[in-house]
Amino acid sequence: MSTPGKAYGPALERAAGHARAWLDSVPDRPVPPRVDGDGITASLDHPLPDHPTAAEQVVDELAAAVEPGLMASPSGRFFGWVMGGTQPAPLAADWLISAWDQNTAMRVATPGTAVVEEVAGRWLLDLLGLPASADVGFVTGGTMASFTGLAAARQQVLTDVGWDLDRAGLSGAPRVRVLVGAERHDSVDLCLRYLGLGAPTVVPADRQGRVVVGGLDDALAADEGPAIVCLQAGNLHSGAFDPMAAAIEVAHRHGAWVHVDGAFGLWAAASPRLRELVEGYESADSWATDAHKTLNVPYDCGIAVVAHPAALRTAMGVHADYLAGFQGAGDPFEKVPEMSRRARGVTVWAALRALGRDGVAQLVDGLVANARALARGVSGIDGAHVVNDVLFTQVCVTFGTDARTRRITERVLADGVTWMSGSRWQGRDVLRMSVSSWSTDAEDVAASVESVRRAAAGT
Ligand SMILES: *Cc1c(COP(=O)(O)O)cnc(C)c1O
């Protein structure tokens, strides 16, 4: 045997040791990296070695070189961008996925992991209240999940007007109008570029960033032909949700396909207390979400859900002789852009198996409770003003002037107790907090509020 199983042991044991040392250090360490990219380059960027090195030495070197440049994003005091932590069961499952090394493209080739993903998909549809007949694809993230949903949308709306996209391509095709709210996530525009659909038609949004339904109706009525409406569940700044039921009713009345970008917000549907935020969203045509945000599985894991499997499989399936007999059977490769890929959906199974229905609801409710506690704490600081309605996991704060807000943001980051992103929202600078980690607790919230208070003192 050229690679006996025993050959892996020493390197895996070192990796487990380094992983545990890192995870053990997270609760108490400062959140920001100690060394910036240039510092890591200085210690790591050697010329390509000429000769082999033992695997365990490689692992040790890697851990030592990288550790100072790690952001403690799994920390309960990390509130940057929208980045979740990772829970124990999905992390351990992710290690197994790598060890198994199953190319989860076809059920016949890798039945073990393919079926775990099928089960995870069914559980998700149940948990999120989406149609049981929908297709679920496991992709790298929210962007590729939206790409997948919008590719199915493009396929369907062009087929509906008699255009053969697969044969004729987009050149000379009827124009597909894509309507989005003014505060959609930038990744939607990126997906439209990938798909050759150009810039979207932008519909006004309200003070919380929600699309204005009357404006959507007017924009749809202003023209005809194939149309796609992209709604948002969870605004990056406010956490707000587009009014799903009303917007979908209007869009469907005009014959449009409705896609929902719910990268972190779709998980509101898993909580009986929060479900009203997405009410009516189940009548959309496709949905995109991330498991690596709110569900707290390791990177990378996004989920595309499409209510019309035929459209998805036409858009994503491949028609190759060597795959003959597998097409149309609902194999994983027919639901995602990739052919070969890791069994990333297994992490979703592990998270759902560990949490159960109640556990997911408690996870999401807990994030929202902590966001509200942060908002309450910070709004007690001199000059601070929480500018969004904190209905979900996001909090945006201003401190009088833009200059003061920016100064306080810099001082918070330099302090290192907590990590929050600065941003601009609706014409002003904000300090932005996203509560996305299962590990945040009341102590983390209190320590983070105190850090902001110190940063604000004397500014
Ligand atoms: C994060 C995010 C995305 C993109 O997801 P990735 O996983 O980074 O590709 C899209 N939409 C919203 C609302 C997001 O928060």
From TrEMBL:
Question: Which cofactors does it use?
Answer: pyridoxal 5'-phosphate
Give the span(s) annotated as Disordered.
Answer: 23-50
SUPFAM superfamilies (UniProt xref): PLP-dependent transferases
One Pfam family recorded for the sequence: Pyridoxal_deC
| InterPro entries to which the protein is assigned, alphabetical | Aromatic_deC, PyrdxlP-dep_de-COase, PyrdxlP-dep_Trfase, PyrdxlP-dep_Trfase_major, PyrdxlP-dep_Trfase_small
Q: Which UniProt keywords apply?
A: Decarboxylase, Lyase, Pyridoxal phosphate
This protein's source sits in the domain of life called Bacteria
UniProt lists the family membership as follows:
Belongs to the group II decarboxylase family.
Q: What is this protein called?
A: Pyridoxal-dependent decarboxylase
Q: What is the scientific name of the source organism? A: Georgenia halotolerans
